[in-house]
Amino acid sequence: MASPGLFLRPTSLSIPINTMRSRSGSSSDLKIFRSISQDRPGTPRPQTGSVNTESFDFVRSNSGTHASRRSSSTLGSWDPIMSRSCSSGGLLSPRPGTMIRDLSPRPSLSRAFSGSALLANSSSVIVLEVEERKQVANLLSFEQIQKMEFYSKFTPTSVSLSHFLDHGATGLRVEESYLFLRREIPVRLANMLMELELLPTELLTEPACKSILTQYSQSFSDVLAFENLTPSEITYEDFNKLLSVIRHRHQDTVPHMAEALHNLRDAGNLNVNSKDRLNQAIQYFLDRLYMSRISIQMLVSQHKALYCPEESIKSNPGGRLKGTIDPKCDAVDVARNAFENATFLCEQIYMDAPKLNIEWVDLTDGGKDSVDFVYIPSHLYHMFFEVFKNSMRATMEFHENSDTIPEINVRIVKSAQDISIKVCDQGGGISRSVAENIFLYLYTSATRVKLSDADMGGTTSTSTPMHGLGYGLPLSRLYARYFGGDMKVASVDGYGTDTYIYLKALESDARETLPIFNASSTNKIRDTANQVEDWTKDE
User: Which ranges constitute the DSSP H helices of 171-206?
Assistant: First the structure.
């Protein structure tokens, strides 16, 4: 089994800073560089010339000091993207409270090559001492590795559903979205690549894992080409084409990583158990990798749906969606659609399927005959579909010799703050010793499914298996947590299982939960006992 010491990140950066604050800057420094509000860090704006003290409030600021910079919309806008020029390629400022250098001993991960580079503007100089990264050295140029180190120093900007919705509703120009994405996507990709390099050698040498690293390195390189391009119709067209390539390139990241981990487990180097420390570190990393993937897919899909006419017609035939977001997402309809498709799979295997009994209530409006809220229908569908598949399989196998098959009961309740969904089955339940493993990637009580190279069974797969991949529930929980929700499971062993899905009822409360690469995340991949915050907060 690989030693946890293999997760140590090599020393990579030493940054003397003149006008920019360091990661451990004082509270007075933080007031200058907060990009969203006084208490909500985010990706700073690119600067030109001297340091600009205006805050970047792409995500709505709650501070009164920014009131004059807000648009007429009460939920915020993307106007600040256009308030300063982004075409000069000026430097971003690092986020607070994150690592400059890790001085822990790391003999097993010593680097043979080192160099330095200067990144400068008219008021500050950053000296970067960059050691060679074994995995990306053959995938990125030296300059691109410097850029990766640089962009990884910034906190991803957490965007709320209300801001996504406002941007789609106000019909702002493509320029605002383009200028934001060409800075935000490299930040999220750089954070991902830095953490990918912390994985143990045994995993990184797996062909499927190497393919993932290669693909994300390529996407990072591709996006950098637009870093300083002047906005124009040709630029927008080329950028849209690149976004399509990126979305297609990473559609099977999840099953590819699952295949690599299956191979690692089969070789005896991984024990999929909640108490195994190496497995804890890998599970922690996978949550972060997949959440970053979900967030980038969201940014890409929203931009494409708004600014590519051919895709808008294809993905939104009724015209109700604002990009990928439904302002009146009907949870009952989504549940029924997901149940219908899960039933089709179940009947193929068991020749029968449980029936659906669904009830709903909107406590905010007693006269409504539905439960609707602002959400992404595809995300909600994924959660329902995975939960229904599990409930159906458990019910059919537990009642294999019964004359009748119990129904699966669903109750959906909307309150002033939350959407609460309860899915109840009588599939025999699960013991407490098993329950602690159900949200572990690779853990499955079913026979493992072998996927062909032609169809890896990803979220875009045309032949999704009924069970056996071991990432249905943990990935569904990530979709719930992405906009501040959650998923819980309570089971009565010998009877059945209740699955709870909690989502935000107010779009202004539904804010992206994003991983941050820093000293804490590095240590957690090596030692999960460290519990310092390293995710954006839902505030």
Answer: 174-196, 201-204
User: Which one has a higher pLDDT value, 119 or 418?
Assistant: 418
pTM (2 decimals)?
Answer: 0.74
Would you state the pLDDT for residue 315?
64
Interval 128-161: pLDDT, tens: 334 445 678 788 999 999 999 999 999 999 999 9
Four-point Cα dihedral 297, 298, 300, 306, nearest 10: 150
**From CA 243, how far away is CA 303, in angstroms rounded?**
9
For the segment 493-529, what is each residue's pLDDT rounded down to a tens digit? 999 999 999 999 999 999 999 999 988 888 877 664 4
Burial class (CB in 10 A: 0-12, 13-18, 19+), 349: middle
In the set 256, 389, 414, 467, the catalytic residue is 389
Pairing of strands 356-362, 408-414: parallel
Gap between the Cα atoms of 434 and 159, Å rounded:
36
Residue 13: closest CA among 535, 533, 537, 518? 518
Tell me if residue 355 is catalytic.
no
Catalytic pick from 66, 382, 414, 504?
382
Exactly one of 131, 386, 507, 512 is catalytic; which is it? 386
Residue 106, pLDDT score: 35
- HSE-up (13 A, CA, CB side) for residue 278: 19
Chain centroid to CA 384: 19
Residues near 340 by beta carbon (within 8 Å), at least 6 away in sequence: none
The mean-pLDDT minimum among 44-48, 188-192, 334-338, 406-410 falls in: 44-48
390 is annotated as an active-site residue: yes
- Which residue in 52, 279, 390, 523 is the catalytic one? 390
Q: How far apart are CA 41 and CA 305, in angstroms?
A: 28
Q: Are 224 and 147 in contact (CB under 8 A)?
A: yes
Q: What is the CA radius of gyration of the chain?
A: 24
Q: If 0-12 CB within 10 Å is exposed, 13-18 middle and 19+ buried, where does residue 2 land? A: middle
